[in-house]
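Inputs:
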Amino acid sequence: MEHALPQLRPPERLLCGPGPTNVDPAVLEAMTKPMLGHLDPDLHEILLDVVAMLRHVYRMPDGLVLPLHCTGTAGMEAGIVNLLEPGDTVIVAQCGYFGRRIAEIARRHGVLVVPVDADWGECVSNDALIDALDRHPRARMVAVVHAETSTGVEHPLAELGAALRDRDTLLMADCVTSLAGVPLEVGAWGVDFAYSCTQKCLAAPPGMSPLAVSERALERLASRRIPVPFSFDLLLLEKYWIERPVTYHHTAPVLSIYALHEALRGVLSEGLEERWARHAEAAAHLRAAVESRGLAVLADPEHRLAPLTAVRVPDGVDGKAVQGRMLREHGIEIGGGLGPDAPAMWRIGLMGRNASAETADRVLAALDAALVQEAAPALA
Ligand SMILES: Cc1ncc(COP(=O)(O)O)c(C=O)c1O
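Outputs:
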């Protein structure tokens, strides 16, 4: 029987889609370190180190910071189920796939959603969000995607935080593709609930969702009428991650925590601002090269997101076929449009260790070759 068992042989890939990105070798190495039990006091020291580093990376000096034991979507869901209750109202900015996902999760939780829409590639204006809030003054929360990975649009989050400062409305921000890739100051900007993931600009494997929660949001949590679903209960999670002695909540994913520890160490050793600048430079290089080929970037020039550039597929070109060729013939993964109504696009991610001009050039060379192979007469 054992002769028939297949070996695990995943191919090498350059991961330049919307995420995951390639894992930093030091992060992979960290995952081979000795396994500890989730109730081992030595692990509990490591948890506190992770939280301390995460505070720096989120720039969140107060409130609660910890990583949730599941992916970015669960971080989104944790924000909804902790800070909203059935019957509450939330204003959601929708200019792509992930804004719509926030709205969908909120509706499933019995929350009334007031969507504020913009087209693919555009950003929902802060004025439109404040206007919606004026029309729905009892809304408990405004939710936006800081870095909309489905379109490559960055929301002006600092300005939104400033506009909401004197209002009794919480601000939730999806920072899945922005954490450690673009400027983000959760504390100073007045974000009440930020969630992210590990597989994008942190360059660790997928599986955890770093969270940052403001004092104000924690007060809101303390005054809830109905309890939070157990797995997402931030106050129970705090008892494991931060309070000592710990109280068991779940069996923590120890090797993923080592990975996150090493990833955060990598970010802080490089320097957060240096890392933001590296992502910005790589993106500028990519966009200039894309536009010099006569291709169009989807996002409006005022709101372009560094870690993810969405490029419109030109008329007459089979975008999926080009993407498939890049994967099969060059070992390079890029993304396509996400969701049934997305316009035809290629999504190129330069995140974590892949945020460099060299990586951008490798992707562009493969794209050029695939376009020639697919006989795109307008561009060949
Ligand atoms: C902006 C954004 N939000 C949420 C998610 C969901 O994260 P995950 O796939 O880790 O659940 C993603 C995933 O790509 C994303 O890009």
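Remarks. The chain is about 40% helix and 15% strand. Residues 66 and 211 are 5 Å apart (CA to CA).
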